[in-house]
Write a structure and sequence with these properties.
The complex is a heterotrimer of chains A (526), B (393) and C (194). Chain A is mainly α and 526 residues long. Chain A has helices at residues 14-24, 28-56, 67-102, 110-129, 157-184, 197-228, 242-259, 262-276, 283-296, 312-340, 349-372, 374-380, 384-414, 420-447, 461-490. The N and C termini of chain B lie far apart (90 Å). In chain B, a hairpin with a 2-residue loop joins β1 and β2. Classes of the chains: A mainly alpha (526), B alpha+beta (393), C alpha+beta (194). Chains in contact: A-B, A-C, B-C.
Chain lengths: 526, 393, 194
């Protein structure tokens, strides 16, 4: 799909040439493709892990695995999905689309770009290799609370720590690259307040990454020194405090949640106006809402810790701050609806996924508001209600948004239209399966089923069997997505340059498929 | 006959095809299936009302926020589905051109703010009450360890361990599961009705969390720290809960069972506990004042091993990887006896091997050591006496 | 065109100042955390105690004679791998606010070698923790007990008058952790348990 890169000398073995081309590429489109492919692969690995433990949860009792392996699957599923599926997918989209959307010829720091991608396969190699080690893979949940992960963690924990360090470096470098690109390489005439929403949300996400990832690096370093170098950050016996871990982790962890959702906001804000054939409603307030969500995300981390015995005043602060986040988030949802209002809508697959995103993310947001009420959180905390909440936020939020983006931009990437009928089937089966999987989890949670347990009491059986069936259907629908993507890459009806009737913006002015080098002469924006 | 069937099949196929071509019906199906399945299964799956004033109050708060969410959702989704229906291209071929309205935006910033303030006020009141741990009638120290709870009545000076009593056979599906599968323990925590009971939570190893949904008490148990929570239960009964913070392999297997007794019955229960404690002391004296033979110790040791050690070290002593070493051929089990005794009595710092000294009697420890040294593939021929254990602590 | 402010110098200045500010911030976190924990009562008043060790005023400052009594509960916990018996000699006492009181903890090393332990205190409720002032405590230093040795260790403390009104009971808990268990006995077990 992409023309031959000229960095590789000719006259070599084609396989060597192929490897060298992808290994050494500094082209933003090729690196974007690499990121998206890696994320796709890890999405299936993480999904297979989810199906593994969902299968165990289909019935009470232990049928398929021991409780320890169950914990390993839960842990790796979380880590792989968060750091391997969602984040690289968004970085891949940023790599492909930001230069095209702002009229730049490439990312500002192409070699850094290459480096930050190629760290990732090794980071995940380290993480996943822990499955084959004595003592097994990390088994303490993706939040790796100390001291379970320090004093009591398996030896492979160190591989996880180093893997996370590498992912962190990759993310920070990627974020720097995006910020520099957006600040310096915009086409003449494109002021900040004229940038597409996807670029805006990514700019803010990049700042979140730069602020949050070093904190994560800090906390895993503290783990490492606690494990091997005699420090006692999280060890009461040495004067430390296990809660310090949670404070530092969630100081990273909550902004991380927004890192995984803000680009999704941007994607929905790109797609909905195009298919409603109407300008986005309240662009300025969208930008401000995104900015305030980002800032607020740094002062709400304690809402993950209401049951840890925080003083009353602190609990109140975190409750109020968390509730405040609902306001800018609400503004965004209202603006999307207002964008649609009075439009002339058609419902191609990208639009369907964007609307699915808005509806189901709102459900997740509303259950988030319920969780914010600290006194009631004592009943919700660490139950399946929380599991339902995060999956309603992340699956429609991050995954559906990414899929919407892929359907929306794949004609530009490959020059081919995807199969609209299959796309629609994919959307509707995914929506059904997603709700079958995650909606029952609200109820088992309310009924009192704790999360992260390998085995459960009899009253929870029905809904769990149900959720497991839904999960397998959900897994199957993603195989259909894989098929659609491969089919589109291999061929299909040719796409026009504009692709979508209502599409405006610089990325639609270049040919489809986008040639390897675009905007070598910056376009003019008025 | 045959052609009729074929015709029918074709009609069905056509119908299915027509159905799949029209995207609108997908939506109807999606909504229908999701709604049907979840509402049918959701019967009786609301938050449990519980038995305390606080748990019922929190349920009311839960319902308030749930209804706020349902109403907000209905308004937002209603508007959205209306616009999807009314402003599709076939109905509204020419899109509007407006894209901004400060007035509307101010309105939909202020209304949510007011709703949030309305929700925050009762929430704040409830939280203040939850955190008021003063003036308790009774204090119980709840200490979590992998994977059991240790309860100590501070005023009465008694205490005991509470282990899950669901047999391994039920977990491994070789036996039918009982009514309270995974929610049953050997020693129930007992508290009186109508008294303010204060729970102090702490932990011996990793973070656990003590949760009884019917009391709306959930408090993390942190190693080296103590937290507090309280409850006042008006009705006698048996209430069940579970550990709610991932605490390692058997996180699913450390349930909580609380018996709430009328105050006078509670007093007599306390008295019984004191008597039981004394008779245990007498039994211990009797146990260490004579020599026990291997034949006597082995069955006691096997029972003790299976109910306390086997979940990690496995019933056949094969262990699980490097975290839970095998008993068979173990250097500790086949090494010096003093070392074996102190490992079991005091546990091993920085590992999941806990201190069994406070949990098991001299006789049980002597028996389990004798069992480990003469079974599970080991054959040292040594017999350990309860007196030896008594002298080691 | 020569500008008064060379952009390169300006950029260099910014780049120079940023690391200094970052370093200063990191350096300042220690006192900032102390202030934070004192204000919020985080960490069970532990930071308070750190201060006490170094410059503890041995004579309590009693603001005024207050006629108020509170319950003090004592708890003890033995860390994994420590062959000690360790418990408070009394579980609950009633003290006058502002008055120095004394209690003791009993410890016995029942192993056949000497063992060092370090006690780590924790006070609940957290927002009352800062008011429980320890004048003398065995937790200020490590405790070494020879094989079979037993000891009664005193704690001298007073409850400051600034104790919040709604606190009627303060619970003081000590967890005794092994510092350096004499090898031999545990080396092997450790190896095996990793």
């Amino acid at each position: 799909m992409i023309a031959h890169a000229e960095t590789v000398p000719s006259g070599r073995n084609p396989l060597v040439k192929f490897i060298l081309r992808w290994l050494l590429t500094t082209n933003h489109k090729e690196i974007g493709t690499l990121y998206l492919s890696l994320s796709f692969l890890l999405f299936f690995i993480g999904g297979a892990m989810a199906l593994t433990f969902r299968a165990e949860l289909a019935q009470p009792g232990l049928q398929l695995m021991g409780a320890d392996f169950y914990n390993q699957m839960v842990t790796l599923h979380g880590l792989v999905m968060v750091f391997g599926a969602v984040m690289p997918a968004f970085v891949g989209l940023a790599n492909w689309m930001i230069p095209l959307q702002i009229g730049a010829s490439d990312m500002a720091l192409p070699r850094l770009n290459n480096f930050s991608f190629w760290i990732m396969p090794f980071a995940f190699g380290l993480l996943l290799s822990s499955l084959f080690m004595p003592g097994g893979a990390p088994n303490f949940g993706w939040t790796f609370y100390a001291p379970l992960s320090t004093t009591y963690g398996p030896p492979s924990t160190d591989f996880m720590i180093l893997g996370i360090h590498m992912m962190g470096i990759s993310s920070i470098l990627g974020a720097i690259n995006i910020i520099v690109t957006i600040f310096n390489l915009r086409a003449p005439g494109m002021t900040l307040m004229k940038m597409p929403m996807f670029v805006w949300t990514w700019l803010i996400t990049a700042f979140l990454l730069i602020m949050a990832m070093p904190v994560l690096a800090g906390v895993v370093t503290m783990m490492l020194t606690d494990r091997h170098f005699g420090t006692s950050f999280f060890e009461a016996s040495g004067g430390g405090d296990p809660l310090i871990f949670q404070h530092v982790f969630w100081f990273f962890g909550h902004p991380e949640v927004y890192i995984m959702i803000l680009p999704g906001f941007g994607i929905a804000s790109e797609i909905i106006p195009v298919f409603a054939r109407k300008r986005i409603f309240g662009y300025t307030s969208m930008v401000w809402a995104t900015g305030s969500i980002a800032i607020l995300s740094f002062v709400v981390w304690g809402h993950h810790m209401f049951a840890t015995g925080m003083p009353l005043a602190t609990e109140l602060w975190f409750m109020y701050a968390t509730m405040v986040i609902a306001i800018p988030t609400g503004v965004k949802v209202f603006n999307w609806v207002a964008t649609m209002w009075g439009g002339s809508m058609t419902f191609e697959t990208p639009m369907l996924f964007a609307l699915g995103f808005v509806v189901m993310f709102t459900i997740g947001g509303l259950s988030g508001l319920m969780l914010a009420i600290a006194p009631v959180d004592f009943q919700y905390h660490d139950t399946f209600f929380v599991v339902a909440h995060i999956h309603y936020v992340l699956y429609p939020g991050a995954i559906f948004a990414t899929m919407a983006a892929v359907y929306y931009w794949i004609p530009k990437w490959t020059g081919n239209m995807y199969d609209e009928r299959l796309g629609k089937i994919h959307f509707w089966t995914a929506v059904i399966a997603l709700n079958l999987t995650f909606f029952p989890m609200h109820f088992v949670g309310l009924a009192g089923m704790p999360r992260r347990i390998a085995d459960y009491a009899l009253p929870f059986t029905g809904l769990n069997t149900f959720a497991t069936a839904g999960a397998f259907l959900l897994g199957l629908t993603q195989l259909l997505f894989l098929y659609i993507v491969i089919k589109t890459v291999r061929g299909g009806p040719k796409a026009t340059d504009q692709v979508w009737e209502g599409a405006k913006g610089l990325e639609w002015t270049v040919p489809s498929p986008a040639p390897l080098h675009t905007f070598e002469v910056p376009p003019k924006v008025d | 006959m045959n052609s009729q069937i074929i015709n029918e099949v074709i009609t069905v196929q056509l119908a299915i095809k027509r159905f799949f071509v029209r995207s609108r019906s997908y939506g109807a199906w999606a909504i229908l299936i999701s709604l049907l399945s979840t509402t049918v299964l959701a019967q009786g799956w609301d938050m449990r009302p519980g038995v305390t004033e606080m748990s019922q109050h929190l349920r009311t708060l839960h319902h308030i926020s749930l209804w706020v969410c349902i109403v907000v959702g209905a308004v937002v989704f209603g508007a959205m589905f209306y616009t999807i229906f009314a402003h599709r291209r076939s109905k509204n071929p020419i899109p509007a051109t407006w894209h901004h309205s400060t007035k509307v935006e101010i309105v939909w910033t202020i209304i949510p703010t007011l709703i949030l303030v309305g929700m925050a006020i009762p929430a704040t009141k409830a939280l203040i009450e939850i955190e008021d741990n003063s003036d308790a009638d009774l204090t119980i120290l709840v200490t979590g360890s992998q994977w059991k709870w240790h309860y100590q009545y501070l005023e009465a000076g008694i205490g005991f361990y509470s282990n899950m009593s669901t047999p391994l056979e039920q977990i491994n599906n070789t036996e039918a599961k009982g009514e309270h599968y995974l929610l049953e323990v050997d020693n129930h925590l007992v508290i009186p009705t109508n008294q303010k009971v204060r729970f102090l939570t702490s932990s011996d190893d990793v973070i656990h969390s003590w949760w009884v949904p019917d009391f709306a008490v959930k408090q993390d148990a942190l190693p080296g720290f103590i937290n507090e929570a309280w409850t006042r239960v008006p009705e006698p009964g048996t209430y069940r809960g579970q550990c709610t913070e991932l605490c390692g392999m058997n996180h699913a297997y450390m349930p909580i069972v609380v018996d709430v007794l009328p105050e006078d019955e509670f007093e007599s229960w306390l008295e019984d506990q004191r008597i039981a404690l004394e008779s245990m002391g007498e039994a211990a004296i009797a146990a260490r004042s004579r020599d026990w033979s291997m034949e006597e110790l082995m069955p006691i040791g096997e029972d003790t091993y299976l109910s306390n050690c086997a979940t990690c070290h496995q019933p056949d002593g094969s262990g699980q990887g490097i975290t839970y070493p095998a008993m068979t051929g173990s250097a500790v089990v086949n090494g010096p006896i003093e070392n074996h005794i102190s490992t079991i009595l005091n546990g091993v710092a920085g590992t999941e091997m806990q201190a069994w000294g406070p949990q098991l009697s001299d006789l049980e420890i002597a028996a389990v050591i004798t069992y480990e040294r003469n079974s599970l593939g080991n054959e040292t021929g040594e017999v350990i006496q309860p007196l030896t254990i008594f002298n080691s602590r | 065109m020569k500008d008064k402010y060379n952009p390169k110098i300006k950029q260099a200045a910014i780049l120079g100042v940023v690391p200094i500010v970052m370093f200063g911030f990191a350096f300042g976190l220690v006192p900032l955390y102390e202030v934070f924990c004192e204000l919020t009562g985080f960490g069970g008043g532990r930071f308070e105690q750190t201060v006490m060790v170094s410059d503890a005023p041995n004579v309590p400052i009693i603001s005024e004679a207050i006629d108020r009594e509170v319950n003090i509960q004592f708890l003890a916990d033995v860390g994994r791998g420590l062959p000690w018996e360790f418990r408070p000699t009394e579980t609950q006492i009633r003290v006058k606010v502002g008055e120095v009181s004394e209690t003791t903890y009993y410890a016995r090393n029942f192993s056949n070698h000497s063992v060092t332990g370090q006690a780590v205190p924790s006070v609940t409720p957290a927002y009352g923790a800062a008011s429980l002032q320890k004048v003398e405590c065995f937790c200020f230093t490590e405790q070494r007990l020879e094989a079979g040795e037993e000891i009664e260790m005193p704690v001298l403390f007073y409850v400051d008058a600034d104790l919040p009104d709604d606190v009627g009971t303060l619970t003081l808990s000590y967890s005794m952790f092994p510092i350096q268990v004499d090898e031999m006995s545990h080396e092997m077990a450790n190896m095996e348990h990793l």
